[in-house]
Amino acid sequence: MMTNKLILTVFTFLLFITAQAQEGLSFLALGDSYTIGESVEEKERWPMQLQDSLNARGFNVDKPLIIARTGWRTDELKAAIEKQKPGKNYDLVGLLIGVNNQYQGKSSSSYKPEFKELLNIAIDHAGGDHSKVFVVSIPDYGHTPFGEKDKDRIGKELDEYNAINREITEDAGVKYYNITDLSRNGEPDMVASDNLHPSARQYSLWVERMLQDPDFYQLLQQ
């Protein structure tokens, strides 16, 4: 009698583990044109490339929910999240935001509290677990045909923005990935056909940098 009960318990447990494995890891990506992948195909966006690369390594990551649009500032991303109301138990949440604050001449002092609020929102959507969240630095569009005439100013201002988002991110105990140097590569195939946004190749280098970090995989622990 006890033997049958033990077998049933083990069988039930194995069914539960199998169901968990098949469910997949949920992924929420928050941002602007860099996250939605302006001027590249859907499969070439960095969140999609990250999903594909992780799954090729044996993980089971669902198609990411991307809340992002070209031109969005921090306040516009916040409004979109509030409107869309994504769930609050994502296994992985990525955040990249700020270039349009800089481009539209907003002060870095106004960016600081807005970015901090968005990071807290990202953590909230990871079930309050900061270890499931990561932030990506803002790339430098001054190293594109669109921005090269004002390269020095753009670079200086974005360095200031990235110093702010990095400090806030690290103070919160959240993983930070600096990809800005990759955007300053200068090679023609690092820029999309619109002469402004990153190409699929540049996005692949962002993903490669993330996955070269052993700590990244800790984000995926449930």
Characterization of this structure:
Residues 5-20 have low confidence and may be disordered. The longest helix is centred in the first third of the chain and has 22 residues, at 2-23. Helices cover 49% and strands 9% of the residues. With 222 residues, the protein is an alpha/beta fold. A 5-stranded parallel β-sheet has the order 2-1-3-4-5.
Keywords:
alpha/beta, 49% helix, 222 residues
Set out the fold topology.
Elements: H1 2-23, E1 27-31, H2 33-36, H3 46-56, E2 65-68, H4 74-84, E3 92-95, H5 99-103, H6 108-124, E4 133-136, H7 151-171, E5 175-177, H8 180-183, H9 200-212
Parallel strand pairs: 1-2, 1-3, 3-4, 4-5
Helix pairs in contact: 3-9, 4-6, 6-7
Largest sheet: 5 strands, parallel
* Separate helix tally: 9
Structure classification? alpha/beta
Helical residue percent band: 40-55%
Rough shape?
A: globular
Number of separate strands:
5
User: In which order are the strands of the major sheet placed?
Assistant: 2-1-3-4-5
* SSE succession: HEHHEHEHHEHEHH
Termini distance? 35 Å
Mean pLDDT across the residues is 92
Residue stretches low in confidence (pLDDT < 50, at least 5 long) are 5-20
Beta-strand fraction estimate: 5-15%
What is the gyration radius calculated from CA atoms? 19 Å
